[in-house]
Amino acid sequence: MNQQTTAILLAECPDQAGIIAKVTNFLTKNNGNIVDLEQHVDTADKHFFMRVEWQLENFSIDREQIQKTFSEEVGSALNMNWQIAFSDIKPRLALFVSQHGHCLFDILSRYQSGEWDVEIPLVISNHKNHQSLAENAGIAFHHIPITADNKQQQEQAQLDLLAKHQIDTIVLARYMQILSANFIDHYPHQIINIHHSFLPAFPGARPYHSAHERGVKIIGATSHYVTTELDAGPIIEQDIVRIRHNDNIEDLKRKGQDNEKIVLSRAIRHHLMHKVLVYKNRCIVFV
């Protein structure tokens, strides 16, 4: 086993005395060397959140038995919701995109440079614009056009591809189709979306034009997990850029798209590093 291989526990439970002691005692008595630990208590909700990472080298519990043993000795007694991930398992991402390619370009750049330790077996799109971009990166491109008449059939084709490639995370890199509840239910808190902050103030196909006419002073971007309520899932990452009085419409687009790329990349990284814990409809992000 690689000396640097770690296990990561994300956990939440009702707040009570002794939670940290119970978790760390479990790790210590089994020769677990803790390399990172962070906790938070929501005092209004009386709820506890924790992320702890420890090295697996010399850990006395077999890897395959860690979850069962932790549940029996710690998790069940604390009424805890928890999950354990391992650092040497590469996440497998699928990228969904429509016609705007700025987020896709950014993700593929980070992927090809080795910034993210991840596999990206496929890109799915309802347009052919970015087929060569995906294929030049060595990634299979699947053109799956969607209409009101074929939506159910085409989503099933997408789900079949995702299952075939053992995808665990989906990134909507400006994919301009609304996913059905059935599709979303297959990947709870595993679909990451990005959108700008112009809705609902500036709806329609030309939000930057409308925003420019109103003289907006900031442009924001939000990355969140997808739920059945449109653009209302738990927020992972947000940021803004400021707009000057002499910025034209193209400046707004450039600043807005740059911001979307950065916010989405941060959200993906948080997710890949197992730093996001979803509670109710919000994210606790340990960064």
From TrEMBL:
Q: Name one GO molecular function term.
A: formyltetrahydrofolate deformylase activity
- Pfam families assigned to the protein according to its UniProt record, in alphabetical order: ACT, Formyl_trans_N
| ACT domain boundaries | 8-92
Biological pathway = Purine metabolism; IMP biosynthesis via de novo pathway; formate from 10-formyl-5,6,7,8-tetrahydrofolate: step 1/1
GO BP, sorted A to Z: 'de novo' IMP biosynthetic process; one-carbon metabolic process
Name the residues that span the membrane. none
Keywords in UniProt for this one? Hydrolase, One-carbon metabolism, Purine biosynthesis
Top enzyme class, one word, equals hydrolase
Query: What protein is this chain from?
Result: Formyltetrahydrofolate deformylase
